[in-house]
Amino acid sequence: MISFEKAFEIIMNSAFTMGKESVELARSLHRVLAEDIKSDMDMPPFNKSAMDGYACRREDIHEVLNVIEIIQAGYRPQKTVGKNECAKIMTGAIVPQGADFVANMENTEITPDKKIRITDNNIPVNICYQGEDIKRGEFVLRKGALILPQHIAVLVNAGISAVPVFKKPLVSIITTGSELREPGMLLPEGCIRNSNSYQLIGQLQRMAIEPEYLGIAADTENSLNLLIQKALSSSDIVLLSGGVSMGDYDLVPAVLAENGVNILFNMVAMQPGKPLTFGTRGKTAVFAFPGNPVSTFFPFEIMAKPFIYKLMGHDYVARKYPLVTGVDFSRKRAERKTFIPVKIVNGEVFPVEFHGSAHINSLCDAEGIISFPLGVLEIKKGQTVEVISL
Question: Are 51 and 126 in contact (CB under 8 A)?
């Protein structure tokens, strides 16, 4: 059995970067940039009005002003603002020559002869100056960035229509266990529903990856062989759940080895997830998770997910928050790193009801995870802990 930290190091050292491709902007969400991006223009590209109002000269702030034109967004001003003049202007429009501030509508009034009087002497400039956000040629996004909606807007402003991204890995999912039945099927006595596969599918879809689900392997070498061989022949990553513990029918590690997978470890000092098995065959990585759903969920989130993102060129770091505990946390044994689902109430951390690695319902109420380090039996109320966000 190896430590969690050593297991994580082995996993991440086994990663490589996928090739590149271009995708449309509308299909770039949650993809990973494969190149640095520079802006092809200043942003804003011109001095623009920050609001609806009147473009004026500061020296004329106490004068009655003639309106010489109306400037809407997308319209180039035709006149220069001179002495005792102004131009009515809309938000986002080009500020005309001669004007050095914009008086917002609320601080102006119209005189009987249709002229403008400014009613506040302390109006700010209200101009967004050319290039104040981004200069032409400046880097706006870096290689390895995970593209979010705000990044898509930046890509548009940088003149990008085809986005260079790293390819997504091909992921296959296999669940093992003769007792498993698919959703919608009759459930004979002693059988359970196959929740792990669909949980893993959802976890991957949250990463914008559509995996190939290969089905349930029965607890026989022949059944496992058929699905594992198919997965290894067509996948960058194979995810299995079940069949990795110490029982008579836990055949997965042996079948993987028979198929040329180099098993790098098969037991980790972590809870839940101790029988986690990881190996490689060429450039295909295999994660074999324990059969209980929480023992699949946690190791995927904290070990497989960073690995998959690294293949896509992104250094994934889970969101973590330092918070104080609202109660004492304790455990009976300290030889493993233990992960506990928690909820957050008024900035304090409390455990959710958790009956063990089969109790997947507990994660529906959990907002994060905390961990007991090796050798620690108790975390006192009021102690600061690091919460991994779910």
Answer: yes
